[in-house]
Design goal:
With 395 residues, the protein is an alpha/beta fold. It contains 16 helices and 14 strands.
C-alpha cells in the first residue's frame, strides 16, 4: 500500500490537520471533504493504521498517526444517530447513507473488526451521469430501459460501478417513460425526483425491514419498474424472479464477474430439487446481463469501464434452460452484430484505443494466454480527449 506524500494530493495536509482537531464531528467532516478534494472514491477507517483513501482503484495511506480504537469510535459515532448506534450494537454491522450539506453524500458501512469499530465510506457522485458519459453502450441500454417486463442484471465486483449504472438506467426511465418506479435499496445512494415517471425509493431498515419483505408488498403498489439493490439471498432472489414473472421490468445486481457465473449463481442459490424449474424460469424472464469492471486508465489518471454484455435471444434461452451456461461465451461472440460483447472483446478494444495497458487487460480476462496473442498483433492508438474546436478525439 502506498503512502501519500503531500505533493501528490494537495488535500492530504488538510486531512492531517483534521486528525489533530479536538472536535470529532468536525474531524469526520474534514476527512470527507478532503476525500473529495483528493479525487478518492472511498475512505477507510480502522484502528492500527492512518485513514486510507482509494484513488483510481489504489489504496493510499495518509501520512498521519495511526488511529486507535478510541479514535475510530469517536470519528464514526460522530455521524451516527442514537437509533443507529443501537442498531449497530445489536447487529454489529450497519449500512446507511450520510449527507454533509455543501460537501456531498456518502454510502457508509460501519462494522466491528477485532473488537473495535471500523468503517468504509464511499463517495456518491453529486449528479447522475448519462450512459455515454459513463462509457456504457447507450443505444442498447436505452432500448432495454423500454422493456415492459422481464429481468436485467448488472454485475461486477465491489467498486465496479454497478450502482452508478443502475442510477443512469432509472434516471433514463424516469425521464422518458410514464410509469411507476419503485426502488428497494440498502441504503439509498442516488436520489431521484419525480419526472415523467412517479418514483418511490424505499430503504431497507428505514422504510421496510428486508428486501424480501419489500418485494412481497411491492406487487400491491402498482409498479411498472422495480429496482432491487442486490439479490443477496435465496428469499430475495426468489421474490425478484416472482416480480419479473408477474409482468414487471425488474433490474438488480449480483457480485459476479461474468455472464456465465451470473446465471449459475442465480440458479445455484436454490435447493437442488428446484434448479430445473429455476433454469426454465430464468430462460423465460432474463432480458440481459451487463457485467462490468472499472480499470485504471493507461494515462494513470481515472478509470474506464470494461463491459461484457449478453442480450438474450432464443438460442441463449435454450442454453439456460438446458443448463449449458459454459456455451454462453460463444453465443456472446457470435452475437456481436446484435450488440453483444465479450469481456475479451471489450479489453481488446480498450487496449487498441490506448485506454488500458496490456498488463491491465491480461489481468482481467479468464484466458490471458489467448488474449496476449491477439494483443501482440495489435497496434494501439493514442487516446485524445474530444476537442470541440477541432472536432477530433473522443468525448
Amino acid at each position: 500500500m502506498e503512502s501519500a506524500p503531500p505533493s501528490d494530493h494537495s488535500g492530504i495536509d488538510a486531512v492531517r490537520l483534521a486528525l489533530s482537531s479536538e472536535t470529532n464531528g468536525r474531524q469526520i467532516v474534514d476527512l470527507l471533504q478532503e476525500t473529495l478534494k483528493c479525487g478518492a472514491s472511498d475512505l477507510h477507517l480502522a484502528a492500527g493504521r492512518p485513514p486510507v483513501l482509494r484513488i483510481d482503484g489504489n489504496l493510499i495511506s495518509i501520512d498521519a498517526p495511526s488511529l486507535t480504537p478510541k479514535d475510530t469510535r469517536q470519528l464514526i459515532e460522530a455521524i451516527l444517530t442514537d437509533e443507529q448506534k443501537e442498531l449497530l450494537e445489536e447487529r454489529r454491522d450497519l449500512d446507511f447513507a450520510y449527507s454533509v450539506p455543501g460537501v456531498g453524500r456518502f454510502r457508509v458501512n460501519v462494522h466491528y473488526q477485532r473488537g473495535s469499530l471500523a468503517a468504509a465510506l464511499r463517495v456518491i457522485p453529486s449528479r447522475i451521469l448519462g450512459f455515454d458519459a459513463l462509457g456504457l453502450p447507450g443505444d442498447i441500454l436505452q432500448s432495454l430501459c423500454m422493456c415492459p417486463h422481464g429481468l436485467m442484471l448488472v454485475t461486477g465486483p465491489t467498486g465496479s460501478g454497478k450502482t452508478t449504472t443502475l442510477a443512469a438506467m432509472i434516471d433514463y426511465i424516469n425521464r422518458t417513460r410514464s410509469c411507476h418506479i419503485v426502488t428497494i435499496e440498502d441504503p439509498i445512494e442516488f436520489t431521484h425526483r419525480h419526472n415523467k415517471a412517479v418514483i418511490e425509493q424505499r430503504e431497507v431498515y428505514t422504510d421496510t425491514p428486508t428486501f424480501a419483505s419489500a418485494l412481497k408488498h411491492v406487487l400491491r403498489q402498482d409498479p411498472d419498474v422495480i429496482l432491487v439493490g442486490e439479490m443477496r439471498d435465496l428469499e430475495t432472489t426468489a421474490a425478484t424472479l416472482t416480480a419479473a414473472e408477474t409482468g414487471h421490468f425488474v433490474v438488480s445486481t449480483l457480485h459476479t464477474v461474468d455472464v456465465a457465473q451470473t446465471v449459475d449463481r442465480v440458479i445455484d442459490i436454490f435447493p437442488a430439487h428446484q434448479r430445473t424449474q429455476i433454469q426454465l424460469q430464468m430462460s423465460m424472464l432474463l432480458q440481459a446481463i451487463l457485467s462490468q469492471k472499472l480499470l485504471p486508465r493507461a494515462t494513470g489518471s481515472g478509470r474506464v469501464p470494461a463491459i461484457e454484455l449478453l442480450l438474450v435471444n432464443d438460442a441463449i434461452r435454450n442454453l439456460i434452460r438446458e443448463g449449458k451456461t459454459h456455451q454462453l461465451d460463444s453465443q456472446i461472440e457470435s452475437g456481436r452484430q446484435y450488440g453483444m460483447q465479450s469481456m475479451e472483446r471489450a479489453l481488446l478494444e480498450l487496449y487498441r484505443r490506448g485506454l488500458v495497458s496490456k498488463q491491465e487487460a491480461l489481468a482481467n480476462v479468464t484466458k490471458p494466454d489467448e488474449l496476449k496473442k491477439k494483443l501482440d498483433k495489435m497496434t494501439t492508438i493514442v487516446y485524445q480527449p474530444f476537442n470541440p474546436a477541432s472536432g477530433t478525439g473522443k468525448s
